[in-house]
Design brief:
The complex is a heterodimer of chains A (about 200) and B (about 220).
Chain A: H1 9-15, H2 24-31, E1 92-107, E2 111-118, E3 124-130, E4 147-157, E5 162-170, H3 178-195
Antiparallel strand pairs in A: 1-2, 1-4, 2-3, 4-5
Chain B: E1 5-16, H1 25-30, H2 36-41, E2 43-47, E3 51-55, E4 60-64, E5 67-72, H3 78-90, E6 96-109, H4 113-123, H5 130-133, E7 142-147, E8 154-162, E9 169-179, E10 188-189, H6 190-218
Antiparallel strand pairs in B: 1-5, 1-6, 2-3, 3-4, 4-5, 6-9, 6-10, 7-8, 8-9
Classes of the chains: A alpha+beta (about 200), B alpha+beta (about 220).
Amino acid sequence: MSSTQIHSPRADISSQSENGSKTLEAFTNEVEKPIASGGFVDLNPEPGDTRPVATVSHAESHAITGPMTLSQSRRVPGLPREIALQPQEYELRFLAEQLWEGTVSTVLPEEFTARLIDSRSGEEDEATLPTSDVSEEDLSLLAPGAEFYFSIGYQYSRSGNIQRCARIRFKRIPRFNADEILDAHARASARAKRVNFE
Amino acid sequence: MPREPKVRELAIVVRGVFNPLGFQPSWFERTKLLRPAETERAKLKIAHASIVDFSLEWGGLQVTTDRLVFTTQDEGMEGPALDLITGAFRASPATPVNALGINRNIHFVVESEAEWHAIGHKLVPKEGLWAGLLEAPGTLSVTVQGKQKEGRKGSFNIRVEPSAKFKHGIYIDANDHFEIRDKAGNNGTGEELCDIFKAVGKNSLQKTKTAIDTLMEKL
């Protein structure tokens, strides 16, 4: 199954110019007259407005992998009907002013040095950061070679608080150690013997 | 005045064959993909054979039998979000998967109703064509699709609609879509998904951001 392709109407009109119909430029000039309505369908009609409300919902997506936040009206097979699924509510939003990815170089008792790469510009830099800025649960990950995200920006809470802050978060991706790999091989061998392929 | 979005969201979507009950907060703690305190504070909305849905302070995960969606509005946690989903499938490499979508969407508001309508007309001119066919036509949704580069299977889709959240608002969604099926249409695996994440994940975060910011500025 593939996404549905929708052709832009502007492209279709410009391709008709050879047949003598309006060129895109002429069409654009006409449209630039002030137009009071008819641009978009108003999905937030005023009370008393009897225009039909659009059925498009941001909870639905035309694409297979578009965001599909489950709306209250969506039913999941097997799910009890009375359970209504709520749209995602966030405790925190964060708008980043600056974003880096870092790699720890050295670790000292109260600070560590790291190589930083600006996530937006790609510029590299060296920095010394206080260990006190690392969360207690990430301290065990603080070691030379460890990778982390460093961001500075504004944090917005649902209660309306806005706070400027800097955050460090160490990367967590499972890495299998040698013992785990050997164990997996052993289990696979045992399973193969049980199946006894000839 | 430069336009700024009212809402920014990132959504990572994986399609495949899943056991939702295998994606509860406790599993993410056991695999150390989340901090213990995060999983303790996670709000588990539902754990059912058909769906698991829980939220963290910085994002939320919903898993059904054929779709996994992780969303966040925390710009500083987009990299960790990618790591979280990569890690989940690295820990379950045999999981059948068939598509990945890295999605970014925004809502932004313009200064006047006239400006709002002008954008709708810019996207889909009404005079001459639509005005002759429909009574009071208005733009409901526009989607444009591009191809993936480097021969990858999939597409890059951008959708623009009036915002359902804000008056005189506009919603833009960029969907970076990757197919993971083979030529015969069979599912790929979690391991292949991780390879795709490694190859295109960071680039996709930047690509979707650039597309949306550019469009917001030019509309």
